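In response to the reviewer comment on reproducibility (Comment 2.3), we provide here a single inverse folding case reported in full, input and output, so that an independent group could reproduce the run without further information from us. The structure tokens appear first.
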């Protein structure tokens, strides 16, 4: 037997799950077309109090119009129309005040095809518009970032193929090194794009094993020095012993690499990396601090969003996806990342990761 949904919006026998827990708006009308469920999201989107909606005819509670100004319920006739209908696909409709909503509807019918329950789901159209803008920005940003290295690769390879014998070995080596570097850049951009997609879809795969965080930091710093950064640009501090950490080593390297790259590129002075036990719960904390201008306090809540760049960020390159990816990777480990102004100036990023047990590794 299907669970009965009382006026309060909690399905009996559903473990106490309430319609108010849903992120989308929901209106449910019974056999008599009177509202039995009007959840908190629906009240927020429409400005209609749930108490004033319950028990009334849903057509009086939720007045919806199409783009031509027609009353949607008169067009649809949910209770008097075709008895074979089971649902209506999502479409844009409007409240009397002009608020735009994305609306879907579904029927539950008895054996004779009469409506037992009519459910209307509402989504914020502004949220969808923001998502579409974000996707468009992502495509535009990645396309822009890909154009430069691909143009370089195409130019040098075409030149070498057409005029190979005109260049000496040193000139050929310089061109091929440039092609190799630009190909690496394209690979990094594609990796970032795939990471963003997996984070948004919740499909990050974690391959946990015992990881020595202090050694991982030393390895990342050594890689930066080998790539040409001065050794005295970095200061590393390991404070106290850490519990056994079960982490994904590749993703840890990616987190550390992004944070240190961010400090080197956008900060100034010495970059300090500190690894210490997490004082609040069993695990580890890592700090990455620079001595630059820091991040304005009003921007602290935005730094982990897609496409965020600090002052001068556009001039210093990058897609603006690095910190968004870092946050997703830290949270995939069950950790938390924050940013603040460092005590001596500059930006200080701090992330924590919990200690894992061997049977938790995947």
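Designed residues, in position order:
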């Amino acid at each position: 037997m299907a669970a009965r949904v009382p006026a309060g919006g909690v399905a009996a026998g559903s473990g106490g799950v309430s319609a108010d827990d849903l992120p989308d708006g929901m209106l449910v009308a019974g056999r008599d077309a009177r509202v039995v469920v009007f959840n908190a999201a629906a009240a927020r989107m429409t400005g209609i109090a749930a108490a004033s909606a319950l028990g009334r005819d849903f057509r009086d509670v939720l007045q919806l119009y199409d783009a031509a100004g027609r009353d949607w319920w008169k067009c649809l006739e949910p209770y008097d129309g075709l008895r074979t209908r089971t649902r209506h696909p999502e479409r844009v409709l409007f409240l009397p005040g002009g608020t735009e909503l994305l609306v879907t509807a579904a029927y539950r019918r008895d054996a004779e095809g009469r409506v037992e329950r009519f459910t209307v789901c509402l989504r914020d159209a502004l949220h969808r518009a923001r998502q579409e803008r974000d996707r468009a920005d992502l495509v535009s940003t990645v396309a822009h970032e890909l154009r430069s290295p691909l143009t370089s690769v195409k130019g040098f390879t075409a030149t070498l193929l057409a005029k190979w014998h005109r260049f000496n070995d040193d000139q050929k080596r310089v061109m091929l090194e440039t092609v190799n570097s630009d190909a690496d850049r394209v690979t990094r951009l594609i990796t970032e794009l795939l990471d963003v997609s997996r984070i948004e879809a919740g499909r990050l795969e974690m391959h946990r094993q015992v990881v020595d965080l202090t050694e991982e930091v030393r390895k990342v710093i050594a890689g930066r020095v080998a790539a040409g950064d001065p050794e005295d640009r970095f200061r590393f501090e390991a404070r106290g012993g850490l519990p056994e950490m079960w982490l994904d080593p590749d993703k840890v390297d990616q987190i550390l690499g992004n944070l240190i790259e961010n400090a080197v590129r956008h900060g100034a002075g010495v970059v300090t990396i500190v690894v210490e036990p997490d004082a609040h719960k069993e695990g580890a904390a890592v700090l990455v601090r620079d001595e630059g201008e820091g991040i304005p306090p009003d921007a602290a809540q935005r730094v982990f969003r897609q496409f965020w760049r600090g002052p001068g960020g556009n001039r210093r390159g990058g897609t603006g996806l690095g910190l968004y990816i870092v946050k997703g990777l830290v949270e995939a480990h069950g950790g938390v990342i924050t940013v603040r102004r460092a005590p001596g100036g500059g930006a200080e990023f701090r992330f924590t990761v919990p200690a894992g047990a061997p049977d938790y590794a995947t």
